[in-house]
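Thread title: Can someone regenerate the structure for this chain?

I was given the following input by a collaborator and told the matching structure tokens would be attached. They weren't. Posting the sequence so someone can regenerate them.
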Amino acid sequence: MKTLTFVPGTMCDRRVWEPVWSALGGAFGVGYIPVEARLTRADIRTAFDEAAATGPLHLVGFSMGGYLSLEYALDRPERVASLAVICSSARGLSDEEKADRAKVIRFLETHEYKGIATGRLNQFVHPSHQSDPAVVDVIRAMDRDLRQRVLLAQLRETTQRMSLMDRLGDLSCPVLLAGADGDNLVRWDDIAEMHGRIAGSRLEQARDAGHMLPLEQPEWLAARIAAFHAGD
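Best answer:
Regenerated them for you:
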């Protein structure tokens, strides 16, 4: 049985993937890289290397985890058998985004983090899912459990990310790119451009979903992941 190795996004843990795993129905083995437990980029890279110790990975990365998986596939192509990038852009952060993150980092260094605000949470989730406990309760639970230390470390370690757009043509493994029409964090145009730069890549867009696609439409996402791996 093929094993897929899942990578979570910022302030997420394995709970962001559990609905997708359930929807896959045991068709694949499941691996997981706990980037939330690795607080530096060097430690995160080590976690990827450890996961790849038994053979090339079939990576499925969400948001920040999608960028990290893409970066790993470019830097260690012999260790990646396939790549699914979910709601993530290869483009580096804009100066405005870096400035906004710097403000948040300075605040967190001197103030107590009291949890994700409802307005901020709603930026991640499509309006049709903003009252769905299967979505919002999981986001709040992950945020509560991972706490300020993880948020601050992840913001510090991933803000100065380089754009990978110009390197995408070097990818040699099969690639799935998936996004959502209501994602307020990752521009669909970026994902479409990635598709244009990666020969043979598969492009999928979910309707009526926001950035938290694995929680908002797990059945849709599981079906696309399964179809991507069919016949490999």
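The mean pLDDT is 94.
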